[in-house]
Amino acid sequence: DAGVIQSPRHEVTEMGQEVTLRCKPISGHDYLFWYRQTMMRGLELLIYFNNNVPIDDSGMPEDRFSAKMPNASFSTLKIQPSEPRDSAVYFCASSLSSGGNTIYFGEGSWLTVV
Amino acid sequence: DAKTTQPPSMDCAEGRAANLPCNHSTISGNEYVYWYRQIHSQGPQYIIHGLKNNETNEMASLIITEDRKSSTLILPHATLRDTAVYYCIVRRQAAGNKLTFGGGTRVLVKP
Questions:
Q1: Among A97, A102, A105, whose Cβ lies nearest the Cβ of B43?
Q2: How confident is the model at residue A46, as a pLDDT?
Q3: Which of A102, A109, A111 should we substitute to test contact with B (largest number of B Cβ atoms within 10 Å)?
Q4: Which residue among A48, A100, A105 places its CB closest to the CB of B44?
């Protein structure tokens, strides 16, 4: 079975540009999570969805960040405008509520804002 | 969710068992112990979880003390590819409960 698929794997962009990160959760999973990892703050949860509905976005750093889940097989995390301090690895993860709720992670999107 | 305490780093010899400790003295009755690892440049990988009984799968064994205040992850025959940061996380299994990551233990398997 395919795991959580993220794209792009690596992105370098200039400050002020819009960045869109994409995620395809494991088929059938009803929870989707977006995490960010930096050296300073470690792994932190940004937002999570249940059945495509955002449940908790308290971890989203500021209004420049937005996340959507238009359907059960796709989610985006957008940063507009991007800043150098947004440089991090962004992980998407998913879980199945009826399957023990184990959370499975994608390989991450490495973002560098210059 | 209860907090966990892990040693920041440890070394182990290739081919030997690696025993990774974790303290979770404030764990609640409905909280599970989860272990994940993160190999460099990869996403966190689920290893194993348990409530109060010892658990074993193809990757590792999880030993939870009777009072559930601590646990040990055992990698039976460590290989160089087991070098990673290992996270012990306490979490209720209810739907939607997030994983809160601490600093983990950086494990270096040496030849």
A1: A105
A2: 96
A3: A102
A4: A105
Q: What is the spatial distance between Cα B49 and Cα B94, in angstroms, rounded to a whole number? A: 14
Which residue is closest to A5 within chain B, CA to CA? B43
Q: Does the pLDDT value for residue B92 go beyond 90?
A: no
- Cβ partners under 8 Å of residue A101, min gap 6: A31, A95, B93, B94, B95, B96, B97
Q: Is A85 helix (H, G, I), strand (E, B) or coil?
A: helix
Chain B CB contacts of A101 below 8 Å? 93-97
pLDDT score for A88: 97
* Edge-to-edge strand list for the sheet holding A65-71: A5-7, A19-24, A74-79, A65-71
pLDDT of residue A55: 93
- For B26-92, the DSSP string reads T--TTEEEEEEEE-TTS--EEEEEESSS-EE-SS-EEEE-TTSSEEEEEESS--GGG-EEEEEEEEE
Stretches in chain A below the pLDDT threshold 50: none
Provide the pLDDT for residue A97. 83
* A71 token code pair: 């359907």
For residue B48, the chain A residue with the least C-alpha distance is A102
